[in-house]
Amino acid sequence: MLAELPEIQPMDSTPSASGDDRVLGIAAHVSSLVLPLLGPAIVYAVAVARSTAATACGRQHAATALNFHLTMALVIPAALIGHSVSVLGATVLAAGPGDLMSLMLATTGSFLGWFALLAGFGLFELTCMALGCVAAARGRPFTYPLAIPLFH
Q1: Rounded distance between C-alpha atoms, residue 44 and residue 67, angstroms
Q2: What does the pLDDT profile of the chain (152 residues) look like in tens digits?
Q3: Rounded to whole angstroms, how far apart are CA atoms 79 and 76?
Q4: Which of 44, 76, 135, 143 has the most CB within a 10 Å radius?
Q5: For residue 109, how many other CB atoms are within 10 A of its CB?
Q6: pTM above 0.85, yes or no
């Protein structure tokens, strides 16, 4: 009397990548821990040189890792400079250019703000790299958030 339920299919039923593809993908994400920009660039160059249908996923992981770390190399210094200019500029405008104590406090606050920004960006990067490694190990595509797509 009970009707049989259809078999549940996974949402992503694409075939998983080969072993070489997975290694390239994981290397693309992990290499940035050792060589921040150079690591993903080297893995991307290797992936492009070995580019076949079998290594398409590894090349995609290498490209997205390189795009993300290039984006972070632009965003982090801009955020630190913007933070420093805003803190020091607000202090000089509020206290006046001759108030040395306010300027020293603003500089200290700026360094504490730098530390908070760097810690936040570092945690964000590590989390994204871990997610990318998991996706590469499973042979699935991955896209970093906030990455400017320069390489494909």
Answers
A1: 10
A2: 556 655 544 444 454 567 777 888 899 999 988 888 899 999 989 888 876 765 688 888 889 999 999 999 999 888 888 877 777 777 767 666 666 776 677 677 777 878 888 899 999 999 999 999 999 998 888 888 888 888 88
A3: 5
A4: 44
A5: 16
A6: no
Identify residue 122 by its one-letter amino acid code: G
Question: And the tokens for 80?
Answer: 């630190």
Most distant CA pair in the chain, distance: 89
Burial class (CB in 10 A: 0-12, 13-18, 19+), 20: middle
Show the CA angle centred on residue 101, arms to residues 98 and 106, nearest 5°.
100
CA of 86: how far to CAs of 7, 74, 101, 108, 112, in Å?
58, 18, 17, 13, 14
Query: How are the residues of the chain apportioned to helix, strand and coil, as percentages rounded to the nearest 5?
Result: 70, 0, 30
If we measure between CA atoms, which residue out of 82, 77, 69, 76 comes closest to residue 37?
A: 69
